[in-house]
């Protein structure tokens, strides 16, 4: 796309440059690529960037409508044009910036209501005298990935004796697994669905209800179901008691919803204080994103780097390697956040985007495990991908030798990707490593609610900033609709319009 053309000469120059030679040569360049905010530090010195290219990226952002759109985002004005909606996730962390006082007040009330319910539910109040032992969240997409990621990450912060399980898939084994060892008396189901029309969620919620009825009878259902939704009337139609239905705003996007009632499972399992501490960390990142100068702004820097690698250096994908057992689900969470937001082909005005001017394919896993699987590809395959390493300072400074060794592995990988090993002298060709492969390292102080909140907000704002540069709408997801319609057609036997290969499979599978 024409707007990003100024990157081309820099990409041409730097794609041939020696990456190792870019590091440690220009103090100002190195300092510009090392930024901190809200307990997070981004070290992007191993990126294929020099001071001129960095300046070109900043100039592009300054010349865009970034500042005006960021203002609109925080004020709750329409930024999701195709759905004529605001995007209210930052307002869930701080409603005071909203222009519309009514929405701000509804958000405050909703927060009070979930906190109150979570506190009482955690004490077993709705289970006819039984203690709460398990909360089963039934939801999919944004109603699953965010809460599930946070639950795993903050496991150490659970209330005593309470655990969460997550059901998203229509394979009956998913609910079966979530109910393994569950006592019906001490189990609470949270049905999380913004639309309350999602097939997977409604079918699983019916199956969960049937399980409860089979164990405790109809009366046992009362109190053991709660809902988080932007369509409360549909939750009522489903049979959930109005006092246990927690609404959130239509303007909260599914993949941005964990801060709303959609995070109910977290608020119950961890307690409202932990949920609030996550909000506080995210709010710190929000304030930084709003107030820090662009050249010292962490989400902005991360966005510029990812745009540079995609649009400048044409790296289709990005690998996220989190060196923390409990951050294993980070890549899954980011896949939805980034790929549903930035996987678009047209601008907000409907113009076709260039082939290299939309979001990256995000993939990854947990370090050091991934070193023993796909890192071979990263080191020696002819194509490559930038890597985001995530490191916990608390592991590096731990007294546990294993934790130190884990972090040493992370640093070794970044260094090896950059330096490589030349196939000269006695070194056999298959042992040579090309090097010149870029990575960033994101340092988190520790795996605590505040730092995790900041990590999520960082990525939300990074995606927003990229979307501004690509001029696309990051808040809609029209691409997921056609498949849903076609699945309904198959279910209702309306298959005449399908291609012959699909019709044959439908027949073979007896659908
Ligand atoms: O929360 P729900 O309305 O049930 O939606 C669940 C998910 O399904 C949709 O198809 C979207 O692709 C996701 O963005 C959304 O999070």
UniProtKB/TrEMBL annotation:
Q: Which Pfam families match?
A: PGI (PF00342)
> Which pathway?
Carbohydrate biosynthesis; gluconeogenesis; Carbohydrate degradation; glycolysis; D-glyceraldehyde 3-phosphate and glycerone phosphate from D-glucose: step 2/4
- Domain of life of the organism encoding this protein: Bacteria
Does the UniProt entry include the keyword Isomerase?
A: yes
Question: What GO cellular component term, any one, is given?
Answer: cytosol
Q: Does the keyword Isomerase apply?
A: yes
Q: What class of enzyme is it?
A: isomerase
- Tell me the GO molecular function terms: carbohydrate derivative binding; glucose-6-phosphate isomerase activity; monosaccharide binding
Key words, A-Z: Cytoplasm, Gluconeogenesis, Glycolysis, Isomerase
Q: What's the stated role of this polypeptide?
A: Catalyzes the reversible isomerization of glucose-6-phosphate to fructose-6-phosphate.
Matches recorded under NCBIfam families: PRK00179.1
Q: What is the official name of this protein in its record?
A: Glucose-6-phosphate isomerase
